[in-house]
């Protein structure tokens, strides 16, 4: 993925999460900073654990396949290790949105 497209999609993820935060502020009468923090945290964890391009759950299931008897018989080679994460615009955008909320909370 080219850097320009990556930056545009990362910015789009941040804007969508900000829109969800504003929606939660209006719907549930929360503070904007609280909403930014929780939305950033939830989406960061969601994308880190369940990303189909290399989230922790995908890595764990691949390791289970590699260590099974079927993987052993077919000489299955691991593509990823357990702690390795794939860097995509969803992971980066959600984590940056979480860090923006965290930095805004401590700067006030």
What descriptors fit this protein?
108 residues; membrane; transmembrane; 75% helix; mainly alpha; 5 helices
Estimate the helix proportion, in percent.
Answer: over 70%
The low-confidence runs, each spanning 5 or more residues with pLDDT under 50, are: none
Mean pLDDT: 85
Q: Termini separation (Å)?
A: 37 Å
* Portion in beta strands: under 5%
Shape: elongated
What is the succession of H and E elements?
Answer: HHHHH
Please give the count of helices.
5
Give the tally of β-strands. Answer: 0
Radius of gyration based on Cα positions? 18 Å
Structural class: mainly alpha
Main sheet overview: none
Total domain modules? 2
Helices and strands in order, then pairings?
Elements: H1 3-28, H2 32-50, H3 56-67, H4 69-73, H5 89-107
Helix pairs in contact: 1-2, 1-5, 2-5
How would you describe this protein?
By secondary structure, this protein is an all-alpha fold. The protein folds into two domains: 1-51 and 88-108; 54-85, no CATH class. Helices cover 75% and strands 0% of the residues. The protein has helices at 3-28, 32-50, 56-67, 69-73, 89-107. Helix 1 (3-28) crosses helix 5 (89-107) and helix 2 runs antiparallel to helix 5. The longest helix is centred in the N-terminal third of the chain and has 26 residues, at 3-28. The chain crosses the membrane at residues 7-25, 37-60, 81-106. Keywords: Membrane, Transmembrane, Transmembrane helix.
